[in-house]
Amino acid sequence: MSNANSKITRSLLVSIIILAGAVLAYEVLGVAHAQNQSVVIGGYVIGMIGGGFPAPPPDDFNPFTPNIGQSLLQFMWLPLVWWDSANNSYVNLLVSSWKIINGSAILVTLKPGIYWSNGQPFNATDVWLTAHLNYILSPTRYNVKVVIVNATTLYLVNRLYPSLPDLIDFLTGAPIVPSSVYGQFANNATALLNFDDKNPVTLGPWLFYKIVGNEVVFQRNPNFFMKPMPYLQYLILISTGNEPLLLMSGQIQYGSNPVFINYTQWFSSSPYHKAAFMPFY
User: Fold this and answer.
1) Element at 12 (helix H, strand E)
2) For the segment 184-220, what is each residue's pLDDT rounded down to a tens digit?
3) Residue 136 contacts by C-beta under 8 Å, 6 or more apart in sequence?
4) Contact 26/236 with Cβ under 8 angstroms?
5) 42, 98, 262, 265: which is deepest, by most CB within 10 A?
6) pLDDT < 50 positions in the chain
7) According to the model, what pLDDT value does residue 29 have?
8) Comparing C-alpha atoms, which of 54, 59, 66 is closest to residue 192?
9) Which of 143, 148, 147, 145 is nearest to 163 (CA)?
10) Which of 71, 69, 39, 40 is nearest to 255 (CA)?
């Protein structure tokens, strides 16, 4: 594991430990979690993502459908590589390595032993399909074509014109979708856009569980490859509200937006409210 990956993994573990100690009882789910218990699999945390999402919450998580649950996709699906802006570095998520070839292609080696939440193995076909579906919907969206070498090796090359930034954009920005579900739309853009994905098959740490009022509830993905994470059993996201004020009052335990300087003194009495962070990446 690279130093960058090690650093991120340690940071994620610290965040999870904090979250595991900060959670509150949530009667709708019928579970309670003591604030001072040891870190174990279980419990939940209530949070908010910047700007919230429409109320009532969307129940369609098709990543190709505009404005339908887009802000929630980051909890379920992953790109190949994550750009860690805080540390100005790349973090390999679904790849074990990637290398720029002559400034015009990227050679990618996928991590072995990763499985979708339905138990199907993750492989190069999923990456090819993701690029292909983006192309049939919008030829200029990523300007990327995937050339498969074998199940775990592929090249990213430009489809329309030379552009290394376009390849990096796909590498770090495209949520990879399962060919076992989305392969049926490989030649039908209209059907793809009309597909309501209400129970998405994912690679990320969270699975959609249910909607309760104006809240979306996710549950732990037991097949998540960064084991034993996630430690929490549930993640509850509220749709709208003033994120800094909700953090300050303890109504939520994390947020996705940075805490502005003028708010930091308000949070000084509680270690759980000093920083806003995503739970895993």
Assistant:
1) helix 3-22
2) 999 999 999 999 998 899 998 889 999 888 888 899 9
3) 186, 187, 189, 192
4) yes
5) 98
6) 1-39, 258-281
7) 32
8) 66
9) 143
10) 71
